[in-house]
Design goal:
This is 4Fe-4S Wbl-type domain-containing protein. InterPro entries: 4FE4S_WBL. Pfam families: Whib. Keywords: Plasmid. The chain has about 220 residues and is an all-alpha fold. It is built from eleven helices and no strands.
Length: about 220
């Protein structure tokens, strides 16, 4: 047996994905958000499927590329005014969707973020409040899972930040200080343990995002 292969087995190939949801999940895991936007992957039907696979921070990052962010249209165009007749509001929001939402490269991400946040008051992602409400009801189970995954991702991110801060604290406190050799060795081991913990968290995050361990 080849000893190199025995010591370093090849990384198993990812299973082939054939369903739309599977393809969307693979793209969301492996393509950076900015590249998704540049490639037009967060607009239209395909964009809706991919946006559903993204975590809330990724969706918010995508919004930096939105028409609302880059052009900054009048926000009032996206909301019905107090006392405004429904027919007037329908005509006005149709123009808003035509002029802004249909050309927005992240309209699917915008709609998904509105659903995650349960923000269905105005036009979001080219969808009227009534359509957002219908989707909010129809996709309750999926959205609950997505919010739970968002919370878990947030906890993991906070853990990585805390681990990095602890490593910096230990390094600043112990490196270069004088003292007994035994104490210095103990301090150095504490720093190494903190570094290992941080690296383990980062490696787990990379693997969960579809990266290889060596990335």
């Amino acid at each position: 047996m080849n000893t190199m292969m025995a010591a370093h087995p090849p990384t198993p190939a990812r299973p082939r994905v054939t369903t739309e949801d599977g393809v969307a999940a693979y793209i969301a895991e492996t393509v950076p958000v900015d590249s998704l936007v540049a490639g037009g992957y967060l607009a239209g039907h395909d964009g809706r499927l991919i946006a559903q696979q993204l975590r809330a921070p990724q969706l918010r990052r995508a919004m930096a590329h939105s028409v609302c962010h880059t052009v900054q249209p009048d926000v009032d165009n996206f909301y019905q005014e107090d006392g405004e007749p429904d027919t007037d509001w329908q005509q006005r929001r149709t123009r808003t969707v035509r002029d802004h939402c249909t050309v927005c490269p992240v309209r699917a991400a915008c709609a998904e973020l509105a659903l995650r946040d349960e923000d269905t008051v105005g036009v979001r992602g080219g969808l009227a409040p009534e359509k957002l409400d219908r989707r909010l009801t129809a996709e309750t189970t999926r959205l609950e899972r997505a919010r739970a995954a968002d919370e878990q991702a947030g906890e993991q991110q906070r853990a990585r930040i805390a681990a990095g801060a602890e490593l910096q604290r230990l390094a600043g406190q112990y490196l270069g200080t004088s003292g007994k050799p035994e104490k210095r060795l103990e301090n150095i081991e504490n720093i190494r343990a903190a570094a290992r913990h941080r690296d383990e968290l980062v490696a787990a995050h990379r693997l969960s995002a579809g990266w290889t361990a060596a990335a």
